[in-house]
Hints:
By secondary structure, this protein is an all-alpha fold. The chain is built from five helices and no strands. The chain has helices at 4-18, 33-36, 41-55, 61-64, 70-78.
Amino acid sequence: MIDEEKIRAAVQEILGGIAPEIDLTNLLPDTNFRREFDLDSVDFQTFIIRLSKALGAHIPDRDSGRLTTLAACVAYFSRG
């Protein structure tokens, strides 16, 4: 189980590194990263890889498509 604040911080830091032009100060829990920030498949795959490393957790390929919102990331990584 990973702390919710650690998950939020990792998501924001990684998204900011991939797309520095994004204003993440008011990132809503249900904002779809791919749609809202126009992330292509390479950017999104980079996000998944960096998130996996930052949180020290393996993300199977089949699960990556579920991690498109902050709320989904928190739910996925904070499950016990």
